Amino acid sequence: MPYTHLLVPTDGSELSSAALDQAIGLAKALGAHLTVLHAQPPVPLPILGMGDAIDPVTVDALVRASRESAEAVMTAAVAHVEAAGLEPRQQAVEHASPHAAIVEAARSLGCDLIVMASHGRRGLEGLLLGSETQKVLATSPCPVLVVR
């Protein structure tokens, strides 16, 4: 089955950049579309719910910094794809569960392959925190290529 639309979630890390490189090569070889996705978690509600304990200016600064970080990640990823000669689609979402955002995007955009990094949590940390990649693998509507 030839893949025609690749979804590449990115968080700006070195490993997600490696996944983006793999996706670029694959998209070029297949003549496929490529969509870059960044799922930014919202500012934690416990921080926002502290009322008078936190200055509203601080909350605004946290929200602004979070948005600026997301924009920087997307700008860098899109520029990297464009430099490789492709015209990427892009989607940035705010979502509390990155794996759910990835799966929802794959479904809604009609992607037929997700290319993503494995951040390699092992041992107790992996057991307690779980892996976003594992969660995507378990719930994805399409195949997932995991880049290590």
Molecular structure report:
- This protein has 148 residues and is α/β, with parallel strands linked by helices.
- The chain has one domain: HUPs (Rossmann fold), CATH 3.40.50.620.
- It contains 6 helices and 5 strands; from the N terminus they run βαβααβαβααβ.
- The chain has a 5-stranded parallel beta sheet with strand order 3-2-1-4-5, with helices on both faces.
- Helix 1 links the parallel strand 1 and strand 2.
- The protein starts with a strand and ends with a strand.
- The mean pLDDT is 87.
Instruction: Determine the N-to-C terminus distance.
Output: 23 Å
The tally of structural domains comes to: 1
CATH architecture: 3-Layer(aba) Sandwich
Strand order of the largest sheet: 3-2-1-4-5
Tell me, rounded to a whole number, the average pLDDT: 87
Q: Biggest β-sheet, characterized?
A: 5 strands, parallel
Number of strands: 5
The H-and-E topology, N to C, reads as EHEHHEHEHHE
Discrete helix count: 6
Task: Briefly characterize the structure.
With 148 residues, the chain is of the alpha/beta class.
Break the fold down into its secondary structure elements and pairings.
Elements: E1 5-9, H1 14-30, E2 33-40, H2 45-48, H3 56-83, E3 89-94, H4 98-109, E4 113-117, H5 123-129, H6 132-139, E5 144-147
Helix pairs in contact: 4-6
